[in-house]
Records
---
Amino acid sequence: MEKHLVIALAEGKVFSLPAYLDEKFILLSPEVPISELLLERLKRWSFSHVFSSGEQSEEKSNFTTDNDSGSSLLESELKEQTAFAKAFDFYKTTVDFAELLFTDFINKNMLSAKEITDQVKKMIDVIKDQKNYILRITEMELADKNYLVVHSVRTTIVGLALGIFGKLPPHKLIELGMTCLLHELGMVKLPPQLYMSNKILTPQEKRAISAHTVLGYKILKSANFPGSVCLGVLESHENVDGTGYPRNLSGDKISLYARIVTIASSYSALSSPRPFRLAFDGHHTVLELLKGMGRRYDEQLVRLLVANLSVYPIGTYVQLVSGAKGMVIQANEANPKEPMVRLLFNASGERYSESPLVKTDNSDFRIAKALTIPQVNELRKILKA
């Protein structure tokens, strides 16, 4: 694919082939015109390029008022683009908030419980309203941001989604969100090379890492944060089989917030690239969580997450029974095993020019399997080429 400068994009024009924000995310399908709102947001997000094998041309829509299915597809594309832009904008804003939060703590020893509470309330509202898009966006990389900051935000989004699935009351959702956002706060007191390293840690380094939950607990306790939040941070690395730290707690002896954070933090970490491995897609992340049920993770909470995200979470690459390949872009609340998929390649391996959306509850478009991690990586290379 070729790079296209954002400053060279023209409002009202269309790409002859799909345009991408990166190798995962289709920004525009053919026939969907470039809008003023999209150009403004791309500049605000500091994207200098988009990617496409096609060219810009004057708008020529193949959809007519007599073609209901075509009009429906165009409407779906525009709705998805707008919702995606809104969710990504909020995601970036939240990461910026967390970055300032951590910076103020490091430089000024300042932590505002009120500001954190207000931000968590906003996150709860957005997740309830934009679940499909905000969960998809958490897999996007923000290369210019600190891993710890982005990881904390991703953990909060997944943790709050899990709390919402479990119908926690508003005050507990707020406390859960605070716990998620601050669960790695003690790490800032440690050298970055410890938690960013791709080498095997020495026993001494492992002990230093293990101390971060106690450090976070003491910091929040001294700042008069709610006791349940402090406790959730302290226990955020305990495992239900008693093998975690710092107190080797097990089962229900671990607080609810901590058990949720453990799952959400793992989901975030597995779906992020690390110095020693590539990122897992949503499906393989879920499989790893399922493998850890009863050992690291609370079984009921993992089942609750899977029931709502399905075994094919948003962002999962799948193959349909027809042999076509695509990516899950929207959950199906009526049947979590049958999400909506954007097709990328037909059964012969040829790229779709319009990347159609299909409902997999249709017998012609059933999911046969999720692609393996090597297949996903190969597909991403092709999409990026």
---
Amino acid sequence: MKVQFFKWLVRSAMLAALFPVVACFHAEVAREEGTMKLAVTSSAFKDAEAIPTRYTCDGENTSPALNWSGMPDGTKSLALICDDPDAPAGTWVHWVLYGLPPTVAGLPEGMPATQNTQGALQGTNDFGSIGYGGPCPPSGKPHRYFFKLYALDAQLNLKPGARKGDLVKAMQGHILAEGQLVGTYRRK
């Protein structure tokens, strides 16, 4: 009985000693998440709602207008990735854009599929082309499309046509804030 009580006492003391460390770490993560969020919106669709056919392979396959706010001080450039984590073969990349000036508060509808546009560089999507490639899932269940915007503390040294993996690697350690807009699409 004394041995069990002693083991319980030691465990309790160890947990009590760790609690301030865990609480402090949790508070720091929560503080960073609370202050490092960008608001991303579109006039084409609301968050978690269906993307109109116009912006898909079944329509005009044109990029939707995007707007954002909440840019933190120290932002030197912006990057955007749109991908579909529900694709059968794994996450499918629909759009890679980077080097966008921090003074830009959005993108117009129908961004041209050129490497250099709006002061930014566009990368190669998983369709193998430059610029935006709209939702084009197989028939069946709806897919989710994440438009993720990143505020960066640096200009990235990437050439036009970079892929998502190149951009993600170059952004490591430079993300000041991020935000996302999610749209869905289901083919008939």
---
Amino acid sequence: MNFKYYIDERPAKNGEMIILSLQHVFAMFGSTVLVPILIGIDVSVALFTAGMGTLLYSLATKAKVPVFIGSSFAYIGILSLLVAEYGQNYVSLAVMSVGLIYILLSFLIRAVGTSWLDYILPPVVMGPVIIVIGLSLASTAISSSGLGIDAFDQTAAFISLSTLLVTAIAMMKGNNFSKSIPILIGIAYGYIVSLIFGLVDLAAFSGLSLISVPKFYNPFIAGEFEFSFGVVAAIIPLVFVTVAEHIGDHTVSSTITGKNFLKDPGLDKTLLGDGLATLFAGLVGGPVNTTYAENTGVIILTRVASVAVIRLAAVFAMIIAFLSPINTFINSIPAPVMGGISIALFGLIAQNGVKLLVAGKVDFNHPRNMMIIAVILIIGLGGALITFTIATVKFEFTTMSLAALVGIFFHLVLPEKEASLTKK
């Protein structure tokens, strides 16, 4: 892929830099604020921790990886249960535990190295896993777009599909600048059309104050910290799930940019960045953080992989956490608009899984490769679930993480002597 701005480059013009950064903010906003809404914690805190988490991640990875950090969906169930039944202090304990485990894993990987990754995660495994990462988000994009089989909405469908079309035209037919901001152009169009159809809640803008301080919460300062082994034990299985997602997301970014981020700066540093971001979130009352596929899609669509652009987007997210009008404006963007954008973003991620399979010269006619790819795709997209209990600790593996684990297992146990993984 030819990039307009590569990882270590930055736009010379401040105006362009700001617009490109805001594009990332718009892309991540919906998912980042949805998580705290579902859990029952402060939205502005989640925005602030997403921004600060991205900066901490950039620091840990020496600004070598174009990644935006946002609220993780994997922990919604357990965190919402904790906040409802036990209070914010146990949520903070759970979030901090995830961050600390990530940090400990990063030190372990630094000690033992990462050469094992090349063996257990070849293109025949990671290609379909990346496809699953993109396609597993398809239902979210379709439902937001009003295109669901059981929930078709003619107005929403028109807005989402026309927004998608305008975004595609801006990317393909615009000038050099408009090709860099197709998402903003699409959102602007979709927002105007939504206003015409009366889908924007203008009442939300009345009586707003300019500044609104997020409701930060630290259990130590509040004097409410209480350790619970049960909470930590319940969160551990999910950590292994999100580590698999972490590796998958960074493999996607590596495929896009042509850099192997699992080797440079290294999986130890990317996990450390994720861990520091999540540990900070736990210390101020935010949710677990993770790398965001939406922003990876932005990089694919715009051909702008600049870490400087993403770091400025992180700063904007932190500022927005304190600015009620901007926060409200972004939150007022109707779901069909973001649904249309998401169809492109998530589809492009899946496309890069196919690209990895092709670049890895995987032989699609060989039974061994066919079987590995098949089981990953069906388990990853079929809603599979495996649960078991060891010493009163319940382990649960679903969809993406389960698909990755089964794919790795098949790769390790199916005989290699009778099958070359790649064409010679």
